[in-house]
Design goal:
Main location (chain A): membrane
Distance between the termini of chain B: 38 Å
Protein name (chain A): Heme exporter protein B
Keywords (chain A): Cell inner membrane, Cell membrane, Cytochrome c-type biogenesis, Membrane, Transmembrane, Transmembrane helix, Transport
CATH superfamily of chain B: P-loop containing nucleotide triphosphate hydrolases
Number of domains of chain A: 1
Number of strands of chain A: 0
Oligomer: heterodimer
Subcellular location (chain A): Cell inner membrane
Number of strands of chain B: 8
Structural class of chain A: mainly alpha
Helix content of chain B: 25-40%
Strand content of chain A: under 5%
Largest sheet of chain B: 5 strands, parallel
Strand order of the largest sheet of chain B: 5-6-7-3-8
Radius of gyration of chain B: 18 Å
Number of domains of chain B: 1
Shape of chain A: elongated
Shape of chain B: globular
Helix content of chain A: over 70%
GO biological process, one term (chain A): cytochrome c biosynthetic process
Structural class of chain B: alpha/beta
Number of helices of chain B: 5
Order of helices and strands of chain B: EEEHEEHHHEHEE
């Protein structure tokens, strides 16, 4: 399993691996929004949590279809399914590799991008906490969409449509957590909801994804 | 010793039964070559045996964790080197020693090349070298000699022989002569499934939607 994680990370940083794709997309969104909305700091500060979360979500979505599609195309998915690792484990590891290459860079970069959007200083720490807690759920849920569309050519659009509704709770509670943090309100409820959603998806979704892959490989 | 025994097996592709009533046994130290025209269901049969799809009927019995499957495509990562590809599969199967496999498939002097810079035949050799590091006794091979030249086919036949001599078994679907005279041949044409309207088996109804 460690070998699979290392392989996926190594593939991501090699040529054409797509490492940094999500981060670059995140940067583009965050730098373009002030041009579109206008330079008023107070407006930007108000919409910053939502924009940052939307950016993170779309950046994550951008790389989802690669999770299984590449392995399907070169035949290694067949071999992984017949290998002595449980498919649920393969799915979890792939979600982890996706999070490390997509979610984690966003968490690290969020404070910098927050400055670009006039995010209140007291909200910065909450932004990091929210992304750290929320983005793993995005990657794990993404494996389910990727598993459902694995055999399809150009399955990206279908995948987005399938996965986006599942992203809504994370988006709501993630943005709410940052907003409350910025206004100095009690953050316990969104924090617990966000953590709960992530914990539940990590526990349950790999089984659904593995089942979807088995059906798709028939 | 019987490694693999198949009884009354029926397999389907895309919801349609393609083969039925297949029965054979494979003993340790023996190879079985599957033959039959295109579309008869060789790949479907092998995928069913490998557990990638459910059988329509019949039983397959073999020791658990004993099968290594090699498909049409080699499952190589083109940006990884030969050595990295091999090391990955070796650690998945917890065998870790890739040197004998590199030597056996004559990949020693290619081991630092990225897989995308290999020729089709060299890729195939790398894909077959993967079997050597699985440490599994039953090899299930789908067209293993595609894009191999005669020297490499001989190399491959030698590797299969070596595997058989250490108590392994091999099930090989192929169209060409592998130079494995001792292998039994099973022609799949007599097992072709009757269409449902002539009283043949019905495929699962929902299969077409999966």
């Amino acid at each position: 399993m460690i070998a699979l994680l290392l392989r996926d990370l190594r593939l991501a940083v090699r040529a054409g691996g797509g490492f940094g794709l999500g981060l670059a997309f995140f940067l583009i969104v965050v730098t373009l929004v002030p041009f579109g909305v206008g330079p008023q700091g107070e407006i930007l500060a108000r919409i910053a949590p939502g924009i940052l979360w939307l950016g993170a979500l779309l950046a994550c979505l951008l790389s989802l279809d690669r999770i299984f599609a590449l392995d399907f195309e070169d035949g290694s998915l067949d071999l992984l399914v017949t290998a002595p690792i449980p498919l649920e484990g393969v799915v979890s590891i792939k979600a982890l590799a996706h999070w490390i290459t997509t979610g984690l860079p966003l968490v690290v970069a969020a404070p910098v991008f927050g400055i670009l959007l006039h995010l209140a200083p007291e909200a910065q720490i909450w932004m990091i906490v929210a992304l750290l807690l929320g983005t793993p759920a995005l990657s794990v849920l993404g494996t389910f969409g990727a598993a459902l569309t694995v055999g399809l050519k150009r399955g990206g659009l279908l995948l987005s449509l399938l996965v986006l509704p599942f992203y809504v709770p994370t988006l709501i509670f993630g943005a709410e957590l940052v907003r409350r943090g910025a206004e100095g309100m009690n953050t316990q409820v969104p924090l617990l909801m966000l953590a709960g959603i992530t914990a539940a998806t990590i526990a349950l979704v790999p089984f659904a994804s593995a089942a979807a892959i088995r059906v798709n490989l028939r | 010793m019987t490694m693999l025994s198949v009884e009354g097996l029926a397999v389907s592709r895309g919801g349609l039964p393609v083969l039925e009533n297949i029965g054979f046994t494979l003993e340790a130290g023996h190879a079985l070559v599957l033959r039959g025209p295109n579309g008869i269901g060789k790949t479907t049969l092998l995928r069913t045996l490998a557990g990638l799809q459910p059988a329509l009927a019949g039983t397959v019995s073999m020791p658990p964790e004993s099968m290594a499957y090699a498909a049409h495509s080699d499952g190589l990562k083109s940006t990884l080197t030969v050595r990295e590809n091999m090391t990955f599969w070796a650690s998945v199967y917890a065998t870790h020693d890739i040197e004998p496999a590199l030597d056996r498939m004559n990949l020693r002097n290619l081991d630092h090349r990225a897989a995308h810079s290999l020729s089709a035949g060299q890729k195939r050799r790398l894909g077959l070298a993967r079997l050597l590091v699985t440490g599994r006794p039953i090899w299930v091979l789908d067209e293993p000699t595609v894009s191999l030249d005669t020297a490499s086919v001989a190399l491959f036949a030698e590797a299969v022989r070596g595997h058989l001599s250490t108590g392994g078994a091999a099930l090989i679907a192929t169209h060409i002569d592998l130079g494995l005279e001792e292998a039994r041949v099973l022609d799949l044409a007599p097992f072709k499934a009757k269409p449902p309207e002539e009283g043949g088996m019905q495929g699962a109804f929902d299969e077409a939607f999966l």
